[in-house]
Design brief:
Blueprint (H helix, E strand, L loop, with lengths): L13 H12 L2 E2 L11 H12 L12 H15 L9 E4 L2 H12 L5 E6 L5 H7 L3 E6 L9 H7 L4 E7 L11 H11 L5 E5 L19 H4 L2 E6 H4 L8 E4 L2 H14 L5 H10 L4 H4 L1 H16 L14 E5 L8 H12 L1 E2 L1 E2 L12 E5 L4 H12 L5
Parallel strand pairs: 1-10, 3-4, 3-5, 5-6, 6-7
Antiparallel strand pairs: 2-8, 7-8, 9-12, 11-12
Helix pairs in contact: 2-11, 3-11, 4-5, 4-10, 13-15
Bound molecules: 4'-deoxy-4'-aminopyridoxal-5'-phosphate and glutamine.
C-alpha cells in the first residue's frame, strides 16, 4: 500500500515528545502545558452526580442549552457583548476542535491564512488539511508583540483568515486596545475572517484586562472566538471548550463540527453549566496563577537566564542567547536528561524552526514542584 501523507512535515507533537522524555528521565515536567494539580473536587462531584442521574447519552450537537446559556450570560457580564445562546454559542470537544472546525468552515483550497509566529502547533496543519496556504508573519521578538506593518504587507486578495492568539502561547503576550484597533483597521473593508484563540482569557496578570476580539464591533462580526474549559478549570484532560461566533459564521461552523465530533461529553457539560454559576471560579484565576508566576520568576532571577515576566497564560519564556549557542531543542533534551527539568524549545512553534535560543516553562504546577525545579536549575552546570 502507498499512502501519500497529507501532512508530510508533521511528526509527533513536541508536547508528547517532551512529556515522554520527562517521564523516562523522571524529570519535573514543565514542558507540556497542563496543571500539575487536580481540579476542584466539587467539579468531580458534579460530573459524578450527573452521570448517576443518567446524563450519559448524546448531548445536542450544539451543546446543552444550560451550558450555552450560562456562557452567553458570562460573556455579556464580562465583556458586555451579546451572543445568542441558541444560534451563536457552540460547545465543542476542546479548543482544538473549535480551531479545526472554524478553519475547515472558512478556508477553501488556495485561500491564504495569516499565522503569527511563533504559532500554536495545531494551526498550520488545520489550514493545510483544508487546502489553504499558511502565510507566516513573525511577531516582534523579544516582546512578541504583533508587527502590524508586516501583517498589512502579508494581506493579499487571497487572504481569507487571520489566526490570532491572546494571551499568547508560548510568550504570554497580551493584546492592547491598540492591537484590536489596528487589526480592525486592516480588515474593515475586506472579506477576511478572524479565528481568535483565547483559551488563556482568564490567566492574565498585573491587573491587565483581557480584551477579547469580540469587544470590537468590526472584529466581532467576522471572528470565531475559541475557548477552553480545560485551562480555566484545571481539567485539560476533559477536552471541552466552545466557539462563539455570529449566526452566519456559527451556521457554517456547526456544519463542520457535527461531523468532526458531533457532540461533546454530556455529564461534563451539565457539570460545567452548574459550576459556572459561581463566577469566583474563574475571576480568582489571575490571582492564583500570578502567585505561581511570581514564585517561578523570583527563582529564575537567581539563574543566568534572561526573561521578562509573562503577561498572561501559564508559560514563562527564558532566553539563554548570551550563555550558549547550543540549539534550543538540544538544550531542552540535555536539561531534561541531565538536570531533571523538562521544558519546550520554542523553535517548534516556527515553520522554519528558527532558533532564538528561548525556552518555555509551564508554571501551572504545585509550588513544591516549582521550587524543586528551580533548585535543580540553580544548581546545574548546563553552560
Ligand atoms: N490553543 C492554545 C494556545 C493552547 O495552548 C491549547 C492547549 N494548551 C489549545 C489551543 C488547545 O486547547 P484544548 O485542550 O481545549 O483543545
Ligand atoms: N497546549 C498545551 C501546550 O502548549 C499542550 C496541548 C497538547 O499537548 N496538545 O503545552
Amino acid at each position: 500500500m502507498n499512502l501519500p501523507s497529507k501532512l508530510p512535515d508533521v511528526g509527533t507533537t513536541i508536547f508528547t515528545v517532551m512529556s515522554q522524555l520527562a517521564n523516562e528521565s523522571k524529570a519535573i515536567n514543565l514542558s507540556q502545558g497542563f496543571p500539575g494539580f487536580d481540579c476542584d473536587p466539587y467539579l468531580v462531584d458534579l460530573v459524578t452526580r450527573f452521570m448517576k442521574e443518567g446524563k450519559n447519552q448524546y448531548a445536542p450537537m450544539t451543546g446543552i442549552p444550560e451550558l450555552r446559556e450560562i456562557l452567553s450570560e458570562k460573556t455579556k457580564s464580562l465583556y458586555q457583548v451579546d451572543y445568542n445562546s441558541e444560534s451563536e454559542v457552540t460547545i465543542v470537544s476542546g479548543a482544538t476542535d473549535a480551531l479545526f472546525s472554524a478553519v475547515s468552515a472558512v478556508v477553501q483550497p488556495g485561500d491564504e491564512v495569516i499565522l503569527l509566529e511563533p504559532a500554536y502547533d495545531s494551526y498550520a496543519p488545520a489550514v493545510k488539511l483544508s487546502g489553504g496556504v499558511a502565510v507566516f508573519v513573525p511577531l516582534n521578538i523579544p516582546e512578541f508583540s504583533v508587527d502590524w506593518d508586516r501583517v498589512k504587507d502579508a494581506i493579499t486578495e487571497k487572504t481569507r483568515v487571520i489566526m490570532v492568539n491572546n494571551p499568547h502561547n508560548p510568550s504570554g503576550y497580551v493584546w492592547t486596545k491598540q492591537d484590536l484597533d489596528t487589526l480592525a483597521g486592516l480588515v474593515r473593508d475586506k472579506n477576511i475572517f478572524i479565528i481568535s484563540d483565547e483559551v488563556y482569557e482568564h490567566i492574565i496578570f498585573d491587573g491587565r484586562k483581557h480584551l477579547s476580539l469580540m469587544c470590537h464591533p468590526v472584529l466581532k462580526e467576522r471572528t470565531f472566538i475559541c475557548g477552553s474549559f480545560g485551562k480555566t478549570f484545571h481539567v485539560t484532560g476533559w477536552k471541552i471548550g466552545y466557539c462563539l461566533a455570529p449566526k452566519p459564521l456559527s451556521i457554517e461552523f456547526r456544519k463542520v463540527h457535527q461531523f468532526v465530533t458531533f457532540s461533546t461529553a454530556t455529564p461534563l457539560q451539565f457539570a460545567l453549566a452548574e459550576y459556572l454559576k459561581d463566577e469566583r471560579k474563574y475571576l480568582d484565576l489571575p490571582g492564583f496563577y500570578q502567585k505561581k508566576r511570581d514564585l517561578f520568576c523570583s527563582g529564575l532571577s537567581e539563574t543566568d537566564f534572561k526573561f521578562t515576566p509573562s503577561q498572561g497564560s501559564f508559560f514563562q519564556l527564558v532566553s539563554y542567547k548570551h550563555l550558549s549557542s547550543i540549539s534550543d531543542y538540544e538544550l531542552s533534551v540535555k536539561m531534561c536528561k541531565e538536570v531533571g527539568v523538562a521544558c519546550i524549545p520554542i523553535s517548534v512553534f516556527f515553520n522554519q524552526k528558527e532558533d532564538h535560543k528561548i525556552l518555555r516553562f509551564c508554571f501551572a504546577k504545585s509550588d513544591s514542584e516549582l521550587l524543586e525545579a528551580l533548585d535543580k536549575l540553580n544548581s546545574s552546570n548546563l553552560f
